[in-house]
Structure formats: C-alpha cells, structure tokens
C-alpha cells in the first residue's frame, strides 16, 4: 500500500489495439494530476480478455505513452497476472457473507430475463441454505434498497437506485474473476487515491463502489471526464480523420504540442491556451474539467503545434525532427545536413505548424550539391540572370556574411543592372534551392554560410558555360 497522504493515479488501458487519442488524454490527465502534487502515476495493462489482448498492442500503448512524454512509476502491472489475488478477494467476500454461491445456469438466467424484461436478474440462490454439489459462480450480495451515491469530482453527485443493479458475478464458475472485481481489487492494492477516467465508465462505478463498501475499503475519489467528439459534435471515429495517437505522431505534431492541446481538450485554466509542461502540472486540477464532451479541432491543434515548434530550442527541435524521421521510416539526416539545418531553424520554425512543413521549408538545407533545379525554377536562370549571379558571387566573396550586408550587395547588383531586387531573387532561389518557392534568399544564404552559398551560385554559372 502507498502512503495514504500521497496522491496515486493510474492509467489502465486494454491492450486490444492502438492507443486512442481519448485514452492518451486520460493518461495525460492522470499524469498531470499526480506529477503536479508530488504523487505517483501507475500503469496497469488490463489484459484479462485473453482472446483480444496482444503483446503487440501492449507494446504500442507503451510506445505511445513514451512518445507523448508520460513517464510512470514502477513496472507496468498485468491484470491477468493477478487473477489469483482477485479470486482470493471473491472468496473472502463469500466467507464474510458479502457474496454468495449462485448455481444458476446460463440457460436458467436467460429464461428468467426473458420472463422479466427490464429487471435486473435476481438469483434464487441469494438466500438459499440447501446448496447442491455443483459448479457455481460467486455473486455480490448487493443492497436491494436505497441508493448508491457517487460523489464525482467532475459530474457532481450521481445517484443510482439499488433496485436497478443486479448481484453481479465476481468469480465465474470456471474460477476466473470478472473485470468489475479485478479493477476494484487492483486499484485498492495499488493504493490508487483518484480514479480519473472517461465518463463511459460512470455506469460501472456504482457497481464497483458496492465492492469497495462490501470489503470495507475506502473509496477513491472518482472523476469521470467527458468523451472526445469530432468537429461535427458526434462521437469521435475514423471518419473524422486521425484517432490513434500514432496517427497524430505521423502527421508531425511534436509531443509537447500534443500535451498542450490534449490538456486543453475538456479542461481549462482561465483563458490560457498555450502553456508548457511546468505550467500544466501547476495548474491542472479536477474542478477545471468540464462536463460537456470536448471537440477535436485540427485548426486549434495546428495553432498550438506552430507555437511549440516556434518556441522550441533549436537543438531540441533538431532532435525532435530526427526522432520524427526515424519513427516514419525516413532516411536519417547526415552530419552535413544537420550542420546546414541547425542554423536554418531560427528563420524557419516561426512559420511551420507541423514537422513535415518545417522539413519542406528546410529542403534547401537538406539537399546536396550540385543542386537539382526543377523546370519552373530553371526559367529564372536565363543568360541575363546568370550574369547577375556571377557578379553577385564576386561581390560577396569578401562580405561579412551578415544578412543585411548580403541584402545590400544584392541590391547594388540589381541597381547596376537596372532591375529591382525581385529580379535577382528569382535566380538566387533557383541556384540555392532549385525551386521557386523557398524561404527568404538571405535567410537561406545566412543559414548555408559563405562557402556553401557561393559554391551553389558558382555551380549554376559554370553549368551555363
């Protein structure tokens, strides 16, 4: 058991597929709540569904959490590995009279439900004393009268009439525990103080509370957060685009941006939209979570992403780009590419909203000599333009290579040829980047440096003869 004064949260995904964006947000909320209070954030893999749980899905979940930057305390716990402990608690409840043996067969239960539609199943074995020697399930002896009250930190007070709940099965006749029992036992044994999860679990909570009460265990604080909907207000699905965390990673949103955006998806701190991890940990609390479903908004996500790319340290941004390339199976950057890219980042990162956009703008720094000029850019390299480039190359041989001085040198050459600066910018773009759409030619030259820039200009004038 943990220190009762310490906050303990958990994330408990089922390893039956990829990490959904909703699950990622749930994990983030739990992580922020615990980390902001010096508490523990635990990870439990709810792998009791043996037919659907796979090691590959577990690995994908762990990888997704690591990409998002969420660390957890201790080793991930397997729910299936604790099945003996779950069965032990069911038998303890049986011994103390909080549960009973039910010998009803599936056919008998089906017949009862057909005869009593709209009523929870009432086992004839609840108060029986003459018990047969036959396989049995262990059922909770749930209260039949009154209400089970959930004091939810997000949804408020939720009341469920006990006559609407059946005596749920805790241990099946084959000796396997049910999910409802396993969750409660695991949360209790792990010392979980706050259960923060999607509000689709709210209907389970009344049943789980009855297990806590039957065992005399303290209830954790429950906080059921609203689900995420698409921009059309409907439950999020594949038709809305990306729904798996891995898809957002592949689209090139940096982890820091995803943490910021997901934190604001259903939670608010005043009007603050853009913040870093330290602020999020300090500010996050349960009363700030709204009750209405949050809507996924890709325009807002791009805005948040652009902010984080623009404010990221250049070395950290380069590392983020390298990780993105590795994750998407792209060719890694060479040392010479990194040396050209790093000084280009300050001028490029202010306009990029995703990592692919940044890489596209940085293409001039990633290509090697001789620059391959596309058909459209080649039109700017006529004989007059090449003559200006030759003059510019000579004029820049001894320039200080400050941006302003480079621009002044280009203006002088343009004036000498009786044209505006734009007339020399076109051939410069073609020679430096091989394209017509590029960042500022002077930003490119500053980033590439004297030797590389002049070499690219010289390549084109020499190719022309």
TrEMBL record:
GO terms for molecular function: glutamate-tRNA ligase activity. Signal peptide: none annotated. It is an enzyme of class 6 (ligase). It is found in: Cytoplasm. It catalyses: tRNA(Glu) + L-glutamate + ATP = L-glutamyl-tRNA(Glu) + AMP + diphosphate. Residues 6-301 form the Glutamyl/glutaminyl-tRNA synthetase class Ib catalytic domain. Residues 321-459 form the Aminoacyl-tRNA synthetase class I anticodon-binding domain. Its EC number is 6.1.1.17. Keywords: Aminoacyl-tRNA synthetase, ATP-binding, Cytoplasm, Ligase, Nucleotide-binding, Protein biosynthesis. ATP binds at residue 238. A motif ('HIGH' region) lies at residues 13-23. PROSITE patterns: AA_TRNA_LIGASE_I (PS00178). CDD domains: GluRS_core. Catalyzes the attachment of glutamate to tRNA(Glu) in a two-step reaction: glutamate is first activated by ATP to form Glu-AMP and then transferred to the acceptor end of tRNA(Glu). NCBIfam families: gltX_bact (TIGR00464). PANTHER family: GLUTAMATE--TRNA LIGASE, GLUTAMATE--TRNA LIGASE, MITOCHONDRIAL-RELATED. Belongs to the class-I aminoacyl-tRNA synthetase family. Glutamate--tRNA ligase type 1 subfamily. Monomer. This is Glutamate--tRNA ligase. It comes from Paracoccus marinaquae.
């Amino acid at each position: 058991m943990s220190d009762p004064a310490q906050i303990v949260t958990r994330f408990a995904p089922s390893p039956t597929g990829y990490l959904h964006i909703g699950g990622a947000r749930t994990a983030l909320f739990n992580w922020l709540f615990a980390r902001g209070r010096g508490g523990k954030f635990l990870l439990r893999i709810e792998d009791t569904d043996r037919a659907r749980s796979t090691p590959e899905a577990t690995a994908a979940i762990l990888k997704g959490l690591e990409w998002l930057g969420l660390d957890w305390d201790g080793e991930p716990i397997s729910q299936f590995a604790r099945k003996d402990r779950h069965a032990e608690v069911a038998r303890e409840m049986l011994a103390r009279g909080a549960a009973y043996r039910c010998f009803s067969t599936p056919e008998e239960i089906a017949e009862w439900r057909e005869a009593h539609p709209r009523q929870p199943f009432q086992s004839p074995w609840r108060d029986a004393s003459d018990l047969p020697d036959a396989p049995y399930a262990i059922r909770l002896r749930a209260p039949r009268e009154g209400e089970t009250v959930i004091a939810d930190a997000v949804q408020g007070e939720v009341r469920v009439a006990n006559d609407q709940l059946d005596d749920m099965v805790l241990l099946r006749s084959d000796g396997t525990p049910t999910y409802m029992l396993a969750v409660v036992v695991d949360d209790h044994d792990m010392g979980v103080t706050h259960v923060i999860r999607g509000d689709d679990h709210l209907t389970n909570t009344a049943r789980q509370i009855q297990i806590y009460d039957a065992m005399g265990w303290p209830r954790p604080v429950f906080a059921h957060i609203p689900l995420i909907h698409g921009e059309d207000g409907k439950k999020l699905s594949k038709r809305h685009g990306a729904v798996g965390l891995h898809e957002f990673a592949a689209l090139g949103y940096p982890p820091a941006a995803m943490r910021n955006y997901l934190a604001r998806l259903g939670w608010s701190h005043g009007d603050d939209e853009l913040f870093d991890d330290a602020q999020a940990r300090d500010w996050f609390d349960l009363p700030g979570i709204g009750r209405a479903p949050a809507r996924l908004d890709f325009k807002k996500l791009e805005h948040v992403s652009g902010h984080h790319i623009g404010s990221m340290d250049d070395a950290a941004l380069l590392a983020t780009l390298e990780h993105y390339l590795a994750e998407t199976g792209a060719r890694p950057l060479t040392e010479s590419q990194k040396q050209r890219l790093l000084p280009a980042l300050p001028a490029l990162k202010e306009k990029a909203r995703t990592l692919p956009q940044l890489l596209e703008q940085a293409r001039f720094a990633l290509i090697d000599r001789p620059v391959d000029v596309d058909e459209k850019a080649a039109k700017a390299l006529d004989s007059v333009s090449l003559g200006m480039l030759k003059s510019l190359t000579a004029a820049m041989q001894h320039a200080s290579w400050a941006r302003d001085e480079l621009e002044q040198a280009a203006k002088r050459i343009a004036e000498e040829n009786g044209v505006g600066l734009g007339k020399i910018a076109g051939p410069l773009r073609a020679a430096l980047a091989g394209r017509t759409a590029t960042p500022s030619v002077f930003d490119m030259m500053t980033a590439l440096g004297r030797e590389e820039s002049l070499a690219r200009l010289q390549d084109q004038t020499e190719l022309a003869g």
